[in-house]
Amino acid sequence: MLRSQLQALLRPRTLRRIPNSAFSRSVSNTPTEADEALSALAYLNSQLATPTPVQHFGTFGPSVNDAEIVEEDAEEEALSFSQLLEQAETAGPAGTPISEMQRERAARRLLMEQMSAYGSTQTRNNTFQPHHPLHKPLPPSQATVSALIAAGAHLGHSRSLLNPNFMPYVYGNRAGISIIDLDQTLPLLRRAANVTRAITQRGGSVLFLGTRPDLRPVVEKSASRLGETQGFYVGERWLPGTLTNRMQSFGPDIVRNFDIVPDLVVLLNPLANMNAIRECAISHVPTIGIVDTNADPRIVMYPIPANDESTRTAELIAGVLSLAGQEGKVRRAQELAAKEKQRLLQEEKMKRYGSSEGNRKPNNYYDYE
């Protein structure tokens, strides 16, 4: 009976309109579903509040104070439960009778508060969601093989399309599909993250390139993490001559006043952007690329063997690299702040002792240095 009452209380109901007269007249003495639910909760509380003596038979023998502790906890729980019952009965302003809907809401809230301690602790924030690789990527220190497997980074192309130069990164074959060895992908991903961090730490710019429609939000989000001065992206077709013929593409004024050539290019689909790879090689720009089993890993300077057709894999790798770039920016800001502090201290020291030290003659060998 108790289970049926609780299930009936938790069953979703259709909202019904209550006339204004229902709030003005008092609640009838006829027992309603809310009254039955409150009585069921009272019975449940009496069952939960029953003290159960607990004895631990160990080295020191049975504990005598365990039953007293259980009784005290049960009394506190019963007291809080009775207070919640009173709140459910007297919900609303003082002197104003409550309606049946208000009683049902109070009883439902009371049930949730009592049962939440016995339920699951998983929420939307501490469990995986499909949008997390894009909006909440993993930092480089937390990238694992399991995360790569969950993103589908180990799935390659057909065995007949395997490039001979990709053989060192192949784990095996399964159902005619080449499986990528993620034990080699993870250290290469961390190496690429170190390169991105070092470039942004020295004030360099990073260009994210992904020309597929599903990669456009990925490159845009990754570039936004590095700011407007160090993060750039290309989500459409790469225009030939962007780097090698930049004088005609951008104009002499822009080329003279701005730095057009990036310091690093991250390619999420390198086979579709071979023109960009050639221009980066001619302009001596280092490249990072997701290389699949049908491609030659030597086309980019820092290859990352993974599934280049998986959107989740691109989100994971681009997110890791962009967060590494953020870490480089933070380190650069700290270094600049330390240098500025050192400069101010030097200036203050020169103001105090500059005249006397400037007129002092060297006395030994070390003063000449």
TrEMBL record:
GO molecular function: structural constituent of ribosome
Keyword Cell division: no
SUPFAM superfamilies according to UniProt: Ribosomal protein S2 (SSF52313)
Alphabetical keyword list: Ribonucleoprotein, Ribosomal protein
Superkingdom of origin: Eukaryota
Single GO biological process annotation from the record: translation
Gene Ontology CC terms: mitochondrial small ribosomal subunit
Keyword Ribosomal protein annotated: yes
Region of interest: Disordered: 347-369
InterPro entries: Ribosomal_uS2, Ribosomal_uS2_bac/mit/plastid, Ribosomal_uS2_CS, Ribosomal_uS2_flav_dom_sf
NCBIfam families (alphabetical): rpsB_bact
Record PANTHER family: 30S RIBOSOMAL PROTEIN S2 PROKARYOTIC AND ORGANELLAR, SMALL RIBOSOMAL SUBUNIT PROTEIN US2M
Family: Belongs to the universal ribosomal protein uS2 family.
Descriptive protein name: Ribosomal protein S2, flavodoxin-like domain-containing protein
